[in-house]
Amino acid sequence: MQRPSRPVTNRPSNDTQSNAPTNTDWQARHFALQIALGMIGIVALIIYGCQLKEMQRSSKAAITGLALSEQMNRIEERAWVAPAGISGDLEVGKEFRPQVVFKNSGKTFALRMASSIKIELVKKGSDPNFDRVKEPSKVDDIWSSVLLPPNGQCGSLPDPLEKSPFSQEQIDSIRDTQSLFVYGRVSYADIFGHYHWTTFCYLYDVREKTYGYYNKYNEADEDKE
Length: 225
Hints:
This protein is of the alpha+beta class. It has helices at 14-19, 23-77, 168-177; strands at residues 81-87, 99-104, 111-123, 153-156, 178-189, 195-205, 210-213, 219-220.
């Protein structure tokens, strides 16, 4: 009589069960992978942030450099107007009305050039009243159509000195007791639309019949606009 055979089952052996991965092991590896990817992402963001800041700094520096370059180019190319000389002597029987010559030493036109010139006799040792010279506050206040080209010159005359002409006795008195000033301001715009000015002050030597710059009121704008 045959012995019945043992039924076949699909249950794995103990050896097979010990070699198979468990759910806990898979979750641990998955979690570690997520942490690694997260750290890589953080490092990438830090690197990107640093690069972005550097790009912003470089861009800002480039813009600043361009602005400075444009400003320097404008300063080099702008008009520069100042007195180039003065002539006219105090003579017996003649009006004292010296001519001031202005020159544009810049590379471009001076636009809407206007001057205000005053003559003043003051007690020796005193300063002239420079407040008499009108100062435009902006380009639109310069009511002039005068254009002065590069290296161009233009003469301007003030109103005659009050009480002139003088006799010789009066001229001798001025020489001994008074100082004779010719002073003023020239205002103009450059081709870039900026307003500029130059002030001047001459002291006339009655004895020598010469002009010299006084130690005050000879200034020019600093091109801040």
